[in-house]
């Protein structure tokens, strides 16, 4: 009988410890969340581009969204807004449908992009990109006037 009592006591202690461990694990797993974006920044080749007024830039405007550890965060919605210069953007890649706002979603590398057509007037154009969660960055480009050879070439499409 002593051995059965000892076994019962160990089983009760083990069961209590197991219940506490499972309870602790369940509580901590419920607090696990997916990484939240901590920063948004223009990609290396995206900021300070130079283009012709009224034309699409040669490279898309891109941002990289990262978490607090500097790791890229996929599947984050980025809202783009034309801030200055009267340009237009499109996130769909359809270069016939432009607007002053657009949204895109980061890829597996944390990159989101839009196609950007500069405004018709030479000068500085800017767009802002805001990631879900509130982080914002600005991208600038310089729109220069078309040269006389560009005007002639585009005007003589015969």
Please, could you describe this protein's structure?
It is a single chain. A hairpin with a 4-residue loop joins strand 8 (123-131) and strand 9 (136-144). This protein has two helices and nine strands, in the order H-E-E-E-E-E-E-E-E-E-H. The protein starts with a helix and ends with a helix. It is 23% helix and 35% strand. The protein has a five-stranded mixed β-sheet with strand order 2-9-8-4-6, with no helix packed on it. Strands 1-3-7-5 form a four-stranded antiparallel β-sheet, with no helix packed on it. The protein has helices at residues 2-30, 148-155, and strands at residues 39-42, 49-52, 61-66, 77-84, 88-90, 101-105, 111-117, 123-131, 136-144. The chain is α+β, with helices and mostly antiparallel strands and 158 residues long. The chain is elongated and about 50 Å long. Residues 11-33 have low confidence and may be disordered.
